[in-house]
Design brief:
mainly alpha, 49% helix, 227 residues, 10 helices, 0% strand
């Protein structure tokens, strides 16, 4: 992992602790169908099939691949350190755009189209065909409003939205489709909805690691059967 990757991870992990502790966004219906993938060789193009393996709730295959690659560069994975792909951030965003964030569907369509146009002009390749270093160059250009081809949404607006949704997908309750296997919560030591804490838990200043970490789905009562 490069120093650039480490700095980006550190920023999002710091922000993620606030997201996890502040509450839960009401973004999307609870579904879980992501499979983990990993690809962190900065010297090679980051071409990958989206982790959900096909058409999703809203995003088509090409757009899903772009979103997954983009979010993985925002929160890159490393050995022993889950990234956006491991946490199922793509699944979270896809479900959100089909549900509570449906008003952002055109925002995403236009933003992804502009992103592709910028990459084609600059590198003669799509975003998913670029190396990790080139992808970082594109993301930096968007953040600093130097990326060409964007009208609405603007490049910074699209970048900021994707970054926000990446943090939500990493650190919100898994019931919303991200934070797979509590990857984000384990990363920041957030215990979830524990039934009780021991005296040692309350005094400890170390990240919470004792199992089980409990989410909303685990707390749900089993519906009673009517005879």
């Amino acid at each position: 992992m490069t120093k650039h990757d480490e700095a980006r991870r550190a920023f999002l992990v710091g922000a993620g602790a606030t997201v996890a502790g502040a509450g839960l966004p009401s973004n999307a219906e609870a579904q879980h169908h992501n499979r983990n993938r990993r690809g962190n060789d900065d010297s090679k193009p980051q071409t990958q099939t989206p982790a959900h393996g096909g058409l999703g709730a809203f995003l088509n295959i090409d757009d899903a691949a772009t979103v997954e690659a983009f979010t993985e560069r925002l929160m890159p994975g490393a050995p022993g350190k889950p990234g956006a792909r491991d946490a199922g951030v793509l699944n979270y965003i896809d479900l959100a755009l089909a549900g509570a964030y449906a008003d952002l569907q055109d925002f995403y369509r236009r933003g992804l189209k502009s992103l592709d146009a910028h990459c084609q002009v600059t590198y003669q390749k799509g975003f998913t065909q670029l190396s990790a270093a080139q992808q970082d160059e594109v993301i930096t250009a968007m953040e600093t409003n130097k990326a060409t081809g964007f009208t609405w949404p603007s490049a910074p607006a699209f970048f900021n939205t994707l970054r926000t949704h990446t943090m939500e997908g990493m650190f919100a309750d898994p019931i919303y489709g991200g934070n797979k296997d509590f990857a984000g919560w384990r990363l920041v030591g957030f215990p979830g909805a524990q039934a009780a804490f021991t005296e040692a838990d309350m005094k400890s200043k170390q990240p919470f690691t004792r199992a089980p970490i409990v989410g909303l789905q685990g707390m749900a009562k089993t519906p009673s059967r009517r005879g």
